[in-house]
Amino acid sequence: MIYTRTGDAGTTSLPDGTRVSKTDARIACYGALDELNAQLGLLRAQLATLHIEGAPHAFEADEKLIVRAQRLLFSLDATPHDVEALEHGIDATDTLVGGIFRGFVLPGGHPVAAVAHVVRCVCRRTEREFCSLSVADDVQRMLQPGMMAYINRLSDFLFALARKINSLTATAETLVAE
Q: What is the C-alpha separation between 178 and 170, in angstroms, rounded?
């Protein structure tokens, strides 16, 4: 059954069964993770609509990294290997587009790149939620040691992916300072 009625009074359960207010900072973090996961799903669906002439599998590795990210956002058990996988994805994109950082760009460009930028912002907000909670002892039980680094690197990957989408679709980007 999808409904339990146990949250009707404004409380919910933590994974260990403890009942807390839905305004608890830990619940806010779980909500941020859920929103990030949904946004990643939207991005993955949008990526599947892109068809790059001469490069039919241009985003295949990126899609796999996104699926892995979605799973890790549920399990919260990213490892240094997972962080390295994102870094390799960023490095591959850097090589493909001839350098990622040439100055700050205004979010936008191709519509799918714009989605990637929105997801990047949601990722950064999720990271801030966890950082604000990091002073509490409970955060250590919620996150494996590599998870904070993973969320940080995920936002970098999303920036790189937006740049890759714009590059492969020959969509111009607008630099902040021109």
A: 19
Closest CA to 142 of 20, 33, 5, 7: 33
Q: Give me the amino acid identity at 126.
A: T
pLDDT of residue 155: 98
Helix (H, G, I), strand (E, B) or coil at 45: helix
Half-sphere exposure of 117 (CA within 13 A, CB side): 17
Calculate the average pLDDT of the chain.
89
Interval 14-69: pLDDT, tens: 878 889 999 888 888 889 999 999 999 999 999 999 999 988 899 999 999 999 99
Q: Which of 30, 32, 31, 11 has the alpha carbon at shortest distance from 22?
A: 11
Give the C-alpha separation, 53 to 89, whole Å.
21
Burial of 89 (0-12, 13-18, 19+ CB in 10 A): buried
Tokens of 107: 């979010």
